[in-house]
Design goal:
The complex is a heterodimer.
Chain A lengths: L1 H13 L29 E5 L1 H4 L24 E4 L8 E4 L15 E5 L5 E3 L1 H4 L7 E7 L8 E6 L4 E5 L5 E3 L11 E9 L8 E9 L15 E2 L2 E2 L12 E6 L5 E3 L14 E7 L8 E9 L2 E5 L5 E3 L1 H4 L10 E2 L3 E4 L8 E4 L8 E5 L5 E3 L14 E7 L8 E6 L20 E7 L2 E4 L6 H4 L4 E7 L8 E6 L5 E7 L4 E8 L11 E4 L2 E4 L14 E6 L7 E4 L5 E4 L6 E6 L2
Chain B lengths: L1 H7 L4 H13 L3 H14 L4 H13 L3 H14 L4 H13 L3 H12 L6 H11 L6 H14 L4 H14 L2 H14 L4 H13 L3 H14 L5 H12 L3 H14 L4 H13 L3 H14 L4 H14 L2 H17 L15
Helix pairs in contact in B: 2-3, 2-4, 3-4, 4-5, 4-6, 5-6, 6-7, 8-9, 8-10, 9-10, 10-11, 11-12, 12-13, 12-14, 13-14, 14-15, 14-16, 15-16, 16-17, 16-18, 17-18, 18-19
Classes of the chains: A mainly beta, B mainly alpha.
Chain lengths: ~575, ~325
């Protein structure tokens, strides 16, 4: 029997199984070696002031201890906008729901900034207290009346909120062709794709989700995470779609998804959408982070149509050609070469991407060389390229959080709640992890999703608003202890859309873009913040407006907000 | 056949089992199975018959038939390593993963001379990566029991890598190269951890030594080429990548990386030629098509780029796991 047994044993080893598919793209990435610490003091401390500021209501997002369906897992976006034009940023939180009875006050929340470090809940009075499975938010003045409007995505019909300018929004959803009852919309961005001065609307859908047909945890290999039964997907569930709506100028939008060829793209689970001129031809393109499917780069063909070229351009996959669990997007010129670069967060067990723009819309993933491959253990979500310490170099802030709350009770090396990450830009888009120096609130563990950036207290540094799953939000006040200068730039389009969404502003070697959505399904302050380091003046300010016109403005003194109007 | 059945009616169970085994060795499986079943009619707890019948079913790719027989064998002789081991493999074949894990865990605690076999099984079959941590535990046992064998180190290093246990893998690789400095594989494994620690020049030194020790070993020149490409030394990488391919012509990762290095050098036509060769060797791999689409895009030929892009996407859909890594299970036993 011995011979037979030996044959058996090795034969058994030789018989192999196929690698099973799994619900999400991930790659067993291990942390890259960290470079020696630069020794440069980190002078930006982030302090959580949410509770004292009055942001105490939890954002509802599915089950707390367990999640049966993917609809419960992705959370939602947040927005920082000045809805009443008082010069101070207000807070908007998209709320989700529960499969069983959600809390009565699980509505979207609008908190007005009292300018004294306090926020007042004006959701009901302002007409934004909608309920439902909310996902993302984007903002822009689509009717060019000088007041910022909101678009909120849902599982089911989306909501367009027109700002009346009187402290209220009205539901103008009927102005946009309605999404289907089972369409789970996620990302959105206002974008003037045809450069007619009117903001159009681009909407992404994560998937078509149907509770009646969605499988339960553990049903297939797409419903497991490392051997643990979990909610299914996104793989195995119906794909999402993208839609484009043209602003007709009469307060309504026309569906141009088919005629613009945006609808030609198929086979993806789309999340965050950003609009910017990535190939430097003067027309706004669209980039979409996709979960476990190729991310999408819609190049504006300048004739009302788009071509999806993500794979060819090098922004659909990582450098090895792997699909990734894309979530959030940051966009700016991080190395001062004049080209807009893209940072994308991904699922755990994978590195993010730092797509370095080599010009004309050709990208290379340089994430490992940039030092940003040191924390692949987290599911990354909201993210921003922001100069937190005003040294003139754009840093990275990233919020994290796993999607499976079951990890909290499993004997696992992974955790549902994760700390935040702060990376200092050392120059040339090389980074070092300074999270441990950025304050106790950065180390606090939450399962976070949407993040928005803006100077909430107008004190000359960028603050951070974070959505936490089934918890109140985090509001990180930035306390900068150095004497670096700064400049805040507010743009007003005249030929271009009034919000100047799509405008590029260059100060020194920094280039930032006014965006309607970025981070994870979130909206940042429309004002652009530039750190000036030790410079007393800004130097020449160059603006390329969404209309395609460029304009130069004379140098101004540091430490002020300026308003630039398109000539 | 009829005569054989009659002749066996009176035979003792051991003799039946012995004859069955001989038949099985001659690949006369149907007759062998008949004899084992006959022996089991005489004695339902006859262990040799139960085990070998289960084994034969397994080898005949009839794991559903093997399972009940091996369950009986395990009940008769619960401390038999091979039975537990084979039962686990059979369970795994019929997707009874949790039962497989229970059987293999039972095998693990049986004193045996086969920890290496068990480790191989764990790594290769143990849920295809879902239980890497358990494989790593067996690896530690293997190193304790078989520290004199180079292969024990290499298996253990693989297990530690899959389990994400960087420190144990690094220690095993360092010990392997210390004990077996003239083995190319030991130098290669050590180099891997050195580069992960950022000691790039040291890593390159060990890789060069591995190449010098065995010029037919494809992994060290591939890995050295990879390091050089990551450092932006594309020109220098070309020679090593070509050496790797010379060792193993069907080494697709080396061909893809060579193409990448050529792309980085904007040697488009050479890259295209290399990718075309790669596609001939592995027509179902999406990556060469993706890279071709990127080259054509950079050359301004968007029509060709689109064709290759679409092909790459289609191949991904047809074989969704080709570019996937199995997930290590994070949970402890």
């Amino acid at each position: 029997m011995n011979t037979l047994v030996r044959n058996l044993v090795f034969c058994a080893v030789c018989w192999s199984f196929n690698v099973k598919a799994q619900g999400v793209a991930t790659h067993n990435a291990i942390a890259e070696k960290r470079s020696a610490f630069s020794g440069i003091p980190w002078t930006s401390k982030l302090v959580d002031t949410a509770r004292t500021a009055g942001l105490r209501s939890p954002v509802i997002a599915g089950g707390e201890k367990t999640k049966r369906y993917i609809i419960e897992a992705n959370g939602s976006g947040v927005a920082l906008l000045d809805f009443d034009n008082d010069g101070f940023l207000d807070v908007f939180l998209v709320n989700g729901s529960r499969l069983d009875t959600p809390p009565v006050d699980a509505t979207n929340k609008l908190y007005r900034n009292s300018q004294k470090g306090l926020f007042e809940d004006v959701s009901v009075a302002a007409g934004v207290a909608q309920k439902g499975w909310g996902s993302g938010v984007c903002a822009g003045d689509y009717d060019n009346d000088g007041f910022t409007d909101l678009f909120v995505t849902y599982w089911g019909p989306n909501v367009l909120l027109r700002n009346t300018g009187k402290g209220k929004f009205v539901d103008a959803s009927k102005a946009v062709p309605a999404a289907g009852a089972k369409d789970w919309s996620s990302g959105c961005t206002f974008v003037d794709y045809d450069r007619d001065g009117l903001l159009d609307l681009f909407v992404t859908s994560y998937q078509k989700f149907d509770l009646a047909t969605a499988p339960l945890p553990g049903k297939t290999s797409n419903c497991e995470w490392k051997g643990m039964p979990v909610f299914c997907g996104p793989r195995g569930l119906p794909y999402g779609k993208v839609s484009l709506y043209r602003n007709k100028g009469d307060g309504t939008f026309a569906d141009v998804t088919a005629s613009s060829k945006i609808g030609d793209a198929q086979g993806f689970y789309a999340f965050t959408a950003v609009a910017a001129d990535l190939n430097e031809d003067g027309w706004p393109d669209l980039y979409v982070a996709s979960d476990s499917t190729p991310s999408l780069f819609f190049r504006n063909q300048k004739d009302g149509t788009f071509a999806e070229i993500g794979a060819e351009a090098g922004v659909a996959f990582n450098e090895h050609g792997f699909e990734q669990g894309g979530m959030g997007i940051a966009l700016a010129d991080c190395n001062g070469d004049g080209h807009l670069d893209v940072f994308k967060t991904n699922f755990a067990g994978d590195h993010p991407n730092l797509y370095l723009n080599r010009g004309k819309g050709v990208f290379e993933d340089g994430v490992l060389r940039a030092g940003l491959g040191v924390n692949p253990q987290y599911v990354g979500w909201g993210v921003g390229f922001v100069d937190l310490d005003n040294d003139g170099l754009i840093d990275v802030f990233q919020a994290n959080g796993h999607v499976y709350p079951e990890l909290e009770t499993a004997k696992s090396s992974e955790e549902y709640r994760n700390p935040r990450l702060v990376y200092r830009n050392l120059g040339g888009c090389r980074f070092e992890d300074v999270s441990h120096l950025a304050g106790a609130a950065v180390a606090e563990k939450h399962s976070s999703r949407g993040v928005a950036f803006g100077d909430i207290d107008n004190d000359g540094d960028v603050d951070v608003l974070i959505m936490n799953m089934n918890e109140p939000p985090t509001l990180l006040r930035n306390d900068v202890s150095n004497k670096n200068g700064w400049l805040r730039v507010k743009l007003q389009g005249t030929k271009s859309n009034r919000s100047a969404i799509g405008a590029e502003v260059t100060v020194g070697k920094q280039k930032l873009v006014v965006m309607s959505q970025t981070s994870f399904l979130s909206h940042n302050d429309l004002r652009l913040h530039f750190g000036l380091g030790t410079q007393a003046e800004s130097g020449v300010i160059r603006v390329r407006w969404p209309s395609g016109e460029t304009q130069e403005f004379a140098s101004v003194k540091a430490n002020q907000e300026i308003v630039l109007v398109e000539k | 056949m009829l005569g054989l059945v009659f002749a066996t009616l009176w035979m003792a169970q051991d003799e039946l089992a012995s004859q069955a085994q001989e038949l099985a060795m001659r690949k006369q499986y149907d007759q062998a199975i008949g004899l084992w079943q006959k022996a089991l009619q005489q004695n339902p707890k006859h262990f040799p018959s139960l085990f070998n019948l289960g084994l034969t079913y397994f080898n005949l790719k009839r794991p559903a038939d093997a399972v009940p027989v091996l369950e009986r064998a395990a009940a008769v002789n619960p401390k038999d390593f091979n039975t537990r081991y084979l039962l686990g493999a059979s369970y795994s074949q019929v997707n009874r993963v949790d039962d497989a894990i229970r059987a293999w865990r039972a095998a693990r605690v049986i004193p045996s001379s086969h920890p290496r076999m068990l480790l191989e099984l764990l790594i290769v079959e143990y849920g295809k990566g879902r239980y890497f941590n358990e494989a790593a535990e067996v690896a530690k046992q293997l190193l304790r029991d078989k520290a004199g064998e180079p292969n024990a180190y290499f298996l253990a290093i693989k297990a530690f890598q899959d389990a994400g246990d960087f420190d144990s893998g690094e220690a095993a690789a360092a010990e392997a190269v210390k004990r077996f400095p003239d083995l190319p594989r030991a130098n290669f494994e050590h180099a891997f951890y050195l580069q992960k620690r950022g000691a790039m020049e040291d890593a390159i030194g060990y890789l060069r030594k591995a190449i010098a020790l065995d010029s037919k070993y494809e992994e060290p020149p591939f890995f050295l080429g990879d390091l050089l490409v990551k450092q932006g030394k594309n020109e220098e990488a070309l020679g090593f990548l070509r050496q790797s391919i010379a060792c193993r012509a069907d080494y697709i990762p080396a061909r893809v990386l060579l193409s990448r290095a050529l792309m980085n050098l904007e040697r488009w036509e050479e890259a295209i030629a290399e990718l075309r060769t790669t596609i001939e060797m592995d027509p179902k791999h999406p990556q060469p098509h993706l890279m071709l689409s990127q080259i054509y895009f950079r050359q301004g030929d968007e029509a060709k780029a689109k064709v290759e892009r679409e092909l790459s996407l289609r191949l991904r859909r047809e074989n969704p796991t080709i570019l996937e890594a199995a997930q290590g299970r994070p949970f402890k036993n």
